[in-house]
Give the backbone structure.
Amino acid sequence: MVALFFLAAGVAVAFLAWNLYRRFGTDQIAVFNERRRGSSLMVGRGEFVDGNRHLDVALAVTPSELFYENAAMQASLDLQWVREIEYDTELGTGAAVPGAKVLRLRSDSQTFEFVLPDETVARWHMMLPPRRPIPALVPQAAAAR
């Protein structure tokens, strides 16, 4: 009976600790957003999708860079190297994201995906408008030879 009591207490403590960890993790994202707010065009929350992992991140965009960070990582993308920006309703794996949209950035060698809440997509769309790569123009005379 005592062992069952300790098991139940351990489960309750683990649940409370997990709740506390998630609450402070959310506050960390807000801290990152506040730190970048003055120097950025826009800041917000999102999920960085890395394979099957979805990591909550703070997102910030400046005229030249997109920053994404959380307590475990700090990274940025130089926008001059981003060849394509698109907004989609599903991930590159085909998985749907209900209540959100996917911001997909492609460089020459890599694709980055961020899940954005629906209510912020319009603002992100204004700050990072979609763009497609411009195909190389081949002169018609050279192509005929």
Observations:
- The chain has three helices and seven strands.
- The helical segments are 2-37, 118-127, 140-144.
- The longest strand covers residues 42-50.
- The first helix runs from residue 2 to 37.
